[in-house]
C-alpha cells in the first residue's frame, strides 16, 4: 500500500499542510468583518435577474456520452501503463488489438455523428 | 552553531518533522512561483495588448498582488442561500490541497537539499524519489474535474452548474491525450519515476527533441487541462459569467485563484521534468534555479499563447481532443519503442 511507505506518509503531510493553510485563509475574514447579510447579497448571481426555479437544472445528455467515452479510454490507458514500462518483455499483440479496437469503435461512432456537439 | 546542529538532528529523528520541513520548503517555492506567474500573466499580457498592466502599487506594480490578496482576505465571508454550505466551503480548500500533493513529486525538495550539501541529507529530506511518482502526480492532478463538478453544483446558481459541467467535459476530454503522451516518455525510459526520467536526459538529448510530437501534444493537452486560452471555455463572460466559480468571493475566490496558478506551476514543472531536462542545465548555477527558471519560462510561453490566439468554441475543442489528439497520441505511443531502439543503438539515448 502507498500509505505504508515513507512517501505515502509525506503525501499525507503535504495534503494536511495545504489544507490547514486553506482553512486558515477561509477563517481569517471572520476576524476582520461583521456579518451584514441582506437578501440581495445572498441571492444567487444571475446577471441581476431574479432566479427562477431551482439551480439544479437538467443538463445536456451529450456530457454523459463524453463521460462514457472518457471511462472507456481511461481503462485502455490503464492497460497501456504496464506495456509502456516493459514493452521489450511483453507481447505487443493484446495492446495493439486493444488500441485498434478502440480506434475502430470510436471511429464508427464518430462517423455516425454521435461525437458531434450540436 | 551547536543549537542549529542539535535542532537538525532532532528534526532528522522524526519522519513527520522531516516531511513537514520538505512540505514547508516546497510550499514556499510554489507560492513564490505562483506569485511570479500571476505578475507575469498580468504584466506581459498587458504589454502584448499595448496596455500597462499594474503600475501604481509598488515599483512597476510589483506589490499589486499583495494588495489584491489583502483586499480579498478582509472581505466579508458569506455563503449564498442557494449553496450547499459544507461542500461550497470545502471545495477551494481540497482543490489547493490536492494540487499541492501533485507538487510533492516534482523534485523541488531534492534540488533544494542540494543547496545545503553539508547539513541536509538528500536521503532523509527527499520524498519525491519513488517509483510510480509520475502516476501519483497525475492521480492528484486529475482530481480537478470532480472538484469542478462539486463546486459548480454546490454554488447554487445556474451559471455555476452549467460552467461546472462544461469545465469537467473539457478536463476529461484532454486527460486521455495527456496520459498517452506521458506514457510515450515512460516507454522511452522504462521508468515511472520523474527522478530517473530527468537523470536519463543527462547523457542524451532532452526528450523534447527525441519525442518532439509527444512534446507538442503534451503542450496542447496541458493548455486545455489548465483551462487557459485558447481553451478557456469555462470563463465566458457573456454566457457563463466566470464558469463554475461564479459564486465564490473573498478568501474563497483567493483560494480558487491560487489553485489555478498552482496547477499552472505544477503542470509547467511536470512538462519541464518530462521533456526539458528538469534541473539539468549547461551553466553551473544551482539546480533549483534551473528548475524554477525553466518552469517560469514554460509558463511565460503559455501566457504568450494566451495573448496571441483567439479562443475556440466548445465543439471545436471537443473535436480537437477526441478526433485528433487521441488518435495521434496512440500512434505516437506505438511508434516510441522503435524510436527508443534506434536511439539506443545509435547512442542518442543512454539509460542509467
TrEMBL record, chain A:
Protein family per UniProt: Belongs to the complex I subunit 3 family.
Pfam family, one: Oxidored_q4
Keyword Transmembrane helix part of the UniProt annotation: yes
InterPro entries to which the protein is assigned, alphabetical: NADH_UbQ/plastoQ_OxRdtase_su3 (IPR000440), NDAH_ubi_oxred_su3_sf (IPR038430)
One GO molecular-function entry: NADH dehydrogenase (ubiquinone) activity
Gene Ontology cellular component terms for the protein in this record: NADH dehydrogenase complex
Membrane-spanning parts: 6-28, 63-86, 92-111
Taxonomic source organism: Candidatus Marsarchaeota G1 archaeon OSP_D
Full protein name: NADH-quinone oxidoreductase subunit A
Cellular compartments annotated: Membrane
Keywords: Membrane, Transmembrane, Transmembrane helix, Transport
Keyword Oxidoreductase: no
From TrEMBL, chain B:
Keyword Transmembrane: yes
TM ranges: 15-40, 87-108, 134-155, 176-199, 205-224, 261-281, 287-309, 330-351
InterPro entries hit by this protein: NADH_UbQ_OxRdtase_su1/FPO, NADH_UbQ_OxRdtase_su1_CS
Molecular function per GO: NADH dehydrogenase activity
GO CC entries: membrane
Membrane topology: Multi-pass membrane protein
Compartments, record wording: Membrane
Organism: Candidatus Marsarchaeota G1 archaeon OSP_D
Protein's name in the database: NADH-quinone oxidoreductase subunit H
Pfam entry (one): NADHdh
Taxonomic lineage of the native organism: Archaea, Candidatus Marsarchaeota, Candidatus Marsarchaeota group 1
PROSITE patterns registered for this protein in UniProt: COMPLEX1_ND1_1
NCBIfam families linked: PRK06076.1-2 (NF004741)
Signal peptide: none
Keyword Chloroplast: no
One biological process term in Gene Ontology: aerobic respiration
Predominant subcellular localization, coarse grouping: membrane
Keywords on record: Membrane, Transmembrane, Transmembrane helix
Amino acid at each position: 500500500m502507498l500509505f505504508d511507505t515513507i512517501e505515502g506518509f509525506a503525501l499525507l503531510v503535504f495534503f494536511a499542510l495545504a489544507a490547514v493553510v486553506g482553512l486558515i485563509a477561509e477563517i481569517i475574514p471572520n476576524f476582520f468583518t461583521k456579518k451584514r447579510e441582506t437578501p440581495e447579497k445572498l441571492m444567487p448571481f444571475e446577471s441581476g435577474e431574479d432566479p427562477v426555479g431551482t439551480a439544479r437544472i437538467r443538463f445536456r445528455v451529450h456530457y454523459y456520452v463524453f463521460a462514457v467515452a472518457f471511462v472507456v479510454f481511461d481503462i485502455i490507458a490503464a492497460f497501456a501503463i504496464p506495456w509502456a514500462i516493459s514493452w521489450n518483455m511483453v507481447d505487443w499483440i493484446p495492446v495493439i488489438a486493444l488500441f485498434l479496437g478502440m480506434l475502430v469503435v470510436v471511429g464508427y461512432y464518430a462517423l455516425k455523428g454521435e461525437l458531434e456537439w450540436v | 552553531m551547536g543549537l542549529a546542529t542539535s535542532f537538525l538532528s532532532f528534526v532528522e529523528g522524526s519522519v513527520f518533522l522531516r516531511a513537514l520541513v520538505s512540505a514547508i520548503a516546497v510550499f514556499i517555492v510554489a507560492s513564490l512561483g505562483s506569485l511570479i506567474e500571476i505578475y507575469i500573466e498580468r504584466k506581459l499580457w498587458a504589454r502584448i495588448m499595448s496596455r500597462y498592466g499594474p503600475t501604481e502599487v509598488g515599483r512597476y506594480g510589483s506589490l499589486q498582488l499583495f494588495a489584491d490578496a489583502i483586499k480579498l482576505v478582509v472581505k466579508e465571508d458569506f455563503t449564498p442561500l442557494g449553496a450547499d454550505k459544507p461542500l461550497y466551503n470545502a471545495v477551494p480548500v481540497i482543490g489547493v490541497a490536492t494540487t499541492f500533493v501533485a507538487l510533492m513529486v516534482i523534485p523541488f525538495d531534492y534540488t533544494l537539499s542540494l543547496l545545503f550539501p553539508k547539513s541536509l541529507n538528500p536521503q532523509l529530506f527527499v520524498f519525491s524519489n519513488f517509483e510510480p511518482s509520475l502516476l501519483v502526480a497525475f492521480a492528484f492532478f486529475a482530481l480537478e474535474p470532480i472538484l469542478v463538478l462539486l463546486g459548480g453544483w454546490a454554488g447554487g446558481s445556474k451559471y455555476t452548474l452549467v460552467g461546472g459541467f462544461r469545465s469537467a467535459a473539457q478536463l476529461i476530454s484532454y486527460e486521455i491525450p495527456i496520459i498517452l503522451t506521458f506514457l510515450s516518455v515512460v516507454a522511452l525510459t522504462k521508468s515511472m519515476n520523474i527522478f530517473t526520467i530527468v537523470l536519463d536526459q543527462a547523457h542524451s538529448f532532452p526528450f523534447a527533441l527525441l519525442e518532439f510530437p509527444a512534446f507538442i501534444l503534451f503542450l496542447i493537452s496541458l493548455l486545455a487541462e489548465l483551462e487557459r486560452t485558447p481553451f478557456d471555455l469555462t470563463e465566458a463572460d457573456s454566457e457563463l459569467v466566470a464558469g463554475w466559480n461564479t459564486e465564490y468571493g473573498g478568501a474563497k475566490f483567493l483560494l480558487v485563484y491560487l489553485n489555478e496558478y498552482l496547477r499552472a506551476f505544477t503542470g509547467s514543472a511536470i512538462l519541464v521534468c518530462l521533456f526539458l531536462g528538469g534541473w539539468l542545465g549547461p551553466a553551473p548555477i544551482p539546480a533549483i534555479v534551473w528548475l524554477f527558471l525553466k518552469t517560469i519560462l514554460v509558463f511565460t510561453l503559455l501566457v504568450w499563447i494566451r495573448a496571441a490566439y483567439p479562443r475556440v468554441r466548445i465543439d471545436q475543442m471537443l473535436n480537437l481532443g477526441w478526433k485528433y489528439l487521441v488518435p495521434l497520441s496512440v500512434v505516437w505511443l506505438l511508434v516510441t519503442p522503435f524510436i527508443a531502439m534506434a536511439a539506443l543503438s545509435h547512442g542518442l539515448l543512454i539509460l542509467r
